Amino acid sequence: MYDSDCVVVMGSNMAENHPVAFRWPMKAKVEHGAKIIHIDPRFTRTSAVADIYAPVRAGSDIAFLGGVINYVINSEKWNTDPFFKTFVVNYTNAATLLREDFKDAEDLDGAFSGLEPAKGSVAEWPFNGLINQYNRASWEYAREKPPAVSAKPVELKPGEGFAPLVASLVWPPPLKDETLQNPRCVFQTVKRHFARYTPEMVERTTGCPKETFLKVAETILANSGAERTTSFAYAVAWTQHTYGVQIIGACALLQLLLGNIGRPGAGVMALRGHASIQGSTDIPTLYHSIQGYLNAPSVLRKHDTLQDFIATETIPVGYWANLPKFMVSYLKSVYGDAATKDNQFGYDWHPKILGDHSHMAMFAAMNAGAVKGMFCIGQNPATSLNAKLDRSALRKLEWLVVKDNWITETANYWKNAPEVKNGEVKTADIKTEVFYLPATQVAELEGTFTNTQRMLQFHHKAAEAPGDCRSDTWFDYELGKRLKKLYANSNLPRDEGFKNLVWDYEHEDVNERKKGEPSALKILKEINGFFTNDPNRHCVGFGDLKDDGSTTCASWIYSGVYPAVGKLLADRRTPDPPGKPGAQLQWGWAWPANRRVMYNRASADLEGKPWSEKKKWVWWDAEAKKWVGYDVPDYIAAKPPNDKAKPGAAGMDALPGTAPFIMRPDGLGWLYVPGGLVDGPLPTHYEPVESPVKNLLYKHHTSPVYKHWKDDANPLAKFGDPKFPYVLTTYRLTEHYLAGGMSRWLPWLTELQPELFVEISPELAKEKGIKNLDWCKISSPRTQIRAKALVTRRMRPFTIDGKVVHQVGMPWHWGYEGLSKGDVVNELTSLIADPNVSMHEGKAFVCNVEKA
């Protein structure tokens, strides 16, 4: 972002919530005149240093971004500058043709072809929350001939691995029109789809003045091209919507149109809220993936055997053709020597998911009595989404283990929750056995963080933990050892996984070993991977991985971070020399393979030359016959730009030397998404599920496929309900952390932000007779809470299609434990979600505000 000529912050208050990262856009602004644009419902400290502040109503992001897309496509600069057409025709799927039976939202007034009631496997698991779904067959590319479908599985011969299976999965190539004139090509579909997103419609839908919108669009376009690049940064104000994935997709689409992907100072930066949220998706605490973004084995898909899993999950063209190597090496890391080809490398021992096991689905199941026990580690569900319902679910558990730094609301829900204090629930009636285990702080253990730019950094132990505080690694390691001992003499097939689990990470230091603390370095070595037949366990990079059981690797994307004992690349702290162009390759280690800009083949033109000297990053060295540059090239090192795609081939041989996006089967950036998303191949503006205004762009008011867990305690407001006329958005403060479990116990932070407040505009305050610091009652269809009024011009009313719409904001850091106590804002929220990743809609729902 330091190399950006323009930084757009949208869906984030970067200055206050990511202040360490925000120094780089500020350095770009101060040192080389980069423009900063902030697009947000509230005027914040990010807005205060921005060159342009564009106010928008919460939940209207796609309408705004769609307007920018429409502006760009129809601009003179975009249609006359050869850079844009060269990039879009050759590096995106703009020229690819779509099937004749595909129907866009333009044809079906906000829906896509294939919409139908939820049925089959998604409806069988009672806690999926789906009402409707899409049959997505018509969204695929048009091809020269239909894909061959064989009823007979490929027979694999001894010693040949899974390569023949992968080769059998290759589909015929899609049809193309590189003139971009065919009405069924992706570009024409995109252009038609966004034609209604005019500046006037953007103003009517978002409330952003037309002049401000046009200034934003013009600035982004002016700072894009061969000589200039624009970057975007977002956080949870984009993700926490029932269409959050599509908001991010709209930004990616715009950046591809502008050639702002894979180049220095370009891209889309997902700002992570904690130091290792990125790490917890890479090696996930998520239910639906295992490691390195491989899908978890599931009973809902054809995953009966390892061969079935590989046949179902492998994308045979591009770099994902290596999935069998990643999967087999992962299974070897889990089960070690016990994992052999004869037993499918232990695949049958690996658990399979049954459906949606995300937070909301899990608590819906828990509230229905379908969950017996819970380990709650580093989470505080008693203050989480529809918190009153979550606490009701906790009361249905037989046992609960809470492991945290302080006594959280979840640890004490049985005696201090509001419904207990007001007599609605009696402690004596709660049968749950609750265990509390004190946890260490991060400075009291060693290990790695993975930050928002995919960079691993090793952190060293700074202090001993007091009393009985133990680390999460200690807890997991001890629990694993005790479970292995418990199942050691079992003869049941279901227990083979525990018996064969590799679980030997004893610490090198004798004192740490006495405490039971495992070795972070041994765990990281297991993650990195090594050759199984090497007694010295020399480490590997992901290019060395095999599908024959000769390599082990817990997470292929992290392979290379620890190449040898004493060579921990995550512990490096050497910056580039001042004034010298570079990617800071000697500071920490970023996956994959220490590449700092992903898909950086796109920073060079079709011949492998930099688009410009100013934006030079990686290029083809004809003399050395390899890709070189300031960064580690994100490409096959010796694949030349003039390499031709080999018809019918699998893997990277199927892609030409001009295909930068190697994790996509066509090697191209996707303006249109033919597979992978379940709610539409193109971003489409929908209103939040709860909204005071109608959708001005389509008949379909909300996403047709959002998730809703129906429960008497989870009611929703109907569109335009006069009882709840205002838009409420939640946010964070610099001084507090999440629900406050790590910050409201600290007196100096509590003094800086002592109590809960509701931020309202002077106009709304006047209308409701509320003065600054008055107590207010804030209500939603779920419940009501109290907070002090903060009357400020940071909030403003919006005019939406001629109607004044007020918006209020609330931080969600308070609860009933700690030095500073306050009502739980998340009690106002509902259990509704995006259908791709089950993300809740906490950034835009309805409420009422009254003087209390």
Task: Describe the secondary structure blueprint for this structure.
Layout: E1 6-10, H1 14-17, H2 19-32, E2 35-40, H3 45-49, E3 52-55, H4 61-73, H5 76-80, H6 82-91, E4 115-117, H7 121-124, E5 132-134, H8 163-168, H9 186-193, H10 199-206, H11 210-222, E6 230-234, H12 236-239, H13 244-257, E7 268-270, H14 277-282, H15 306-313, H16 323-335, H17 359-367, E8 373-377, H18 387-394, E9 399-404, H19 413-416, H20 418-421, E10 433-438, E11 447-450, E12 455-459, H21 472-487, H22 496-500, H23 510-515, H24 520-528, E13 530-531, E14 551-552, E15 589-590, E16 618-621, E17 626-629, E18 707-708, E19 726-731, H25 747-752, E20 757-760, H26 762-768, E21 775-779, E22 784-791, E23 798-800, E24 803-805, E25 807-811, E26 832-833, E27 845-851
Parallel strand pairs: 1-2, 1-6, 2-3, 6-7, 8-9, 9-10, 19-25, 20-22
Antiparallel strand pairs: 4-5, 11-12, 12-15, 13-14, 16-17, 18-26, 19-27, 21-22, 21-27, 23-24
Helix pairs in contact: 4-10, 4-11, 4-13, 17-18
